[in-house]
Amino acid sequence: MTEPLPFSRTASPVSSSAATTVPPGPLPLVTATTLAGSVRSKIATLVPSRGTTSFKARGPPGTLSLMPSPDFGKFEKVLRFGEGRRLKRLQEQAAYIATLEPDFQALSDDALRGKTAEFRQRLENGESLDELLFEAFAAVREARWRESQQRMFDVQMMGGIVLHEGDIAEMKTGEGKTFVASTALYLNALPGNGVHLVTVNDYLARRDAEWNRGVFERLGMTVEAIQNMMPFDERKRAYEADVTYGTNSEFGFDYLRDNMAVALDNIVQRSHAYAIVDEVDSILIDEARTPLIISGEPETAARTYYDFARIVRELRGAPATRKAAKGEDETELSGADYLYDEKHKTVSPAQSALDAVERALGVDNLYDPRNVQLVNHLTQALKAQSLYKRDVDYVVQDGEVKIVDEYTGRIMEGRRWSEGLHQAIEAKEGVAIREENVTLATITLQNYFRLYEKLGGMTGTAKTEEKEFVEIYNLHVVEIPTNVPVARIDQNDLIFKTKDAKWNAVVEDIVARHEKGQPVLVGTIAVETSEYLSELLKRRGIPHNVLNAKEHERESEIIVDAGRAGAVTIATNMAGRGVDIKLGEGVRELGGLYVLGTERHESRRIDNQLRGRSGRQGDPGETRFYLSAQDDLVRLFAGDRIHGIMNRFKIPDDQPMEASILSRQIEGAQKKVEEQNFVARKNVLKYDDVMNSQRMVIYAQRRSVLDGDDTSEEIRNWIADVVERNVALFTESAEPEEWDLDGLVAQMNALYGSDITVDELREEVEQTRDAIVEEFTEDALDTYTEREQSFGAELMREIERYVILQVVDTRWREHLESMDYLREGVHLRAMAQKDPLVEYRGEGHAMFEELSSVIREEVVLTLFHVEIAQEDAQALQPAEAPQALSYEHETPAGADAIAAAGGLAAGATALAPPPPPQRQVVKEHADVGRNDPCWCGSGKKFKKCHGA
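That's the Protein translocase subunit SecA sequence above. Prediction below.
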């Protein structure tokens, strides 16, 4: 007896090598017999050679594909020819997998489970995933049969191969995409990095994980699903599984939360090695323009700014003018509480100012690392009080502080000073401090999914958007043939003159179908439209279900019942994707599911999704769209032509037209809208790429700190950079005689306590900028070494990591806000004949360079002034208190999700125990200063002689 071969609906789980007749199908089929000899001899052509991969490199994360955009019109025939060759190759590979079935059927359950360990060992021995593909897929097929008595079809094997190769498998509704994904997921989970299956809602993530759990467990792998509001421990456990199911927003928000974490223990995601995106067109195209945003309450309450404004108002400031002698403090000599430098916009508080702040706030030590933000508040309050003048630097209008452009004298609408300065000035003037939620982290779905080393996708409708998939994600679309031919009948559109005539015809058609018992699925493009139609059906006494945004909790229940006899279901924009509509008893004989579209969507793909709900797996079905010349799409893009045709033939209002010329006009309108939307999404990506490159730098720096990398060398480089930056600031003139050496010495004293005097600079430094930089850099590094020795190297590393995280996080949030302001207003520059994108890139780059400099300077300043006793080291904790965060995508997540998922405030950083007591080195001549002449009489400075 011969067995039906792959692609046959009735195929047996047992493969045969006997010759067999293949039933007609969508593609000419290749039998296992004809392949038994040839495929094995051609195996080298089916498996990429060692050292190569079958998927495409995407370039660095966050960059657009470097491959040229294909001209889909000019090369369409070439592409179609290439697709045919690829389908033939996939067909041969699937048939070869079928020849392996007897070997896997002979395995015991334990032996089948042991295959995973064998595959992993072979990977370690140098084999590639491509070389393991056939056996791995055969193992999944056998596990599926043992788990559910369902044999996976060869077309499903073909789809799985496409997913593994990093492309999109377009498979019609009901072809078993959930099963298809399990093959590629299993293969790509073998390296042990964890793989992700991304879907559109929590229900599908949970359902698909459960459907596949038994299969993966039979193969010795674990599978979990992420759900919204899942507790942190469960979420982390889900990511530790071999296969993790979840929604696009959950994966994206977890990535952002991981990059807000203050300890490695708070990070949940392991890697971005491989992901399959289910309903890939919905996630990567429809939702691409909506960024994921985590926002929270302002880090500092308005009350704090008002408190500092009140405190500094009582302090006495003086301009930095007097030159201090060696070993003297200019600020203390002045008798003022602080000095300010109007030229360089700097302030330097005296000890009396610090004492006043500590008393007012009830703080023991302002320079404790846990009080980093308080030091910044003091600095900004002093600047606001002494350096920024009302009606010169800013004006107060309508209760707001507005910046005045120093060059034009015009108000710079929408611009704000950063680092808390704007709020400090608002507090000084007594106006309301703007406390709206601030953006803490953000990313677009486009850039999130481009983080993955390899990405695959599944959907029933992607071919019309292939150009966008290729340009943005380097994903090609492969149309997988159906297991049995499609029996659905797609009727021509009926076009009416008016909406009223259209709705009357729609209701009559629904009533007629309902009376004979045929189920009807009605597609609308808006909630308002679905409710209008529902009201019309109620008047006719037709029972029906409505599936729209207001009924999302009953989504799967409603859509599953849509195939029973007599059911009438109204769905908005084809809600319920991912849930199959199975025909009820007797419905087949009535013609199957009837899908009625009440309006064409802007995208042909959405219309195809609606049609695709009928005729699953060879079931009968019928579809038709009802349109009117007053529908928005028709009216805006093809209204004049269609009205002209109707008027020419004098068509009555209630008489529909059914002509291919009209359908072509409407399809042309849809193509125009699709192109417009594509351009808009690509434009969004270009802007976000500016932020993405900056985001990658910041997140990489944070991760390096969290990983415990040695920060000492980087800090020393930062010290040298800050010194050089400050020297350049005070020596801008080309003439050394015009350099502000007094201001430079005062600045270095404020930075790290330098005791180098102006006279020493003039005597010992040959009045070259490089020599001055070298002198101060060496002095600053010596000072930092002394601080490290006093704290101990281990504690100093912990303090460095703590301060870097605090400063980077604070300044990054401010930078996000500044970039938001820039993006909101940059489009206006087009009026001045400037390209807004070029302007955004240029200014964004300059702002990021400034951000990097500010971070370095603030970290260095803090580390030079930090004071902490070793017995207090264990108490060093992240300064942020828990705060309520909001998540923005299409619907905000709960405010407590951040705490549950291990975000900003989840847990504290516990420092290592203090190092053992260091043996004290007693130095002779301990009273000699670093810059004093050496006691040995060499004439050199002590630090360059016996103090070296």
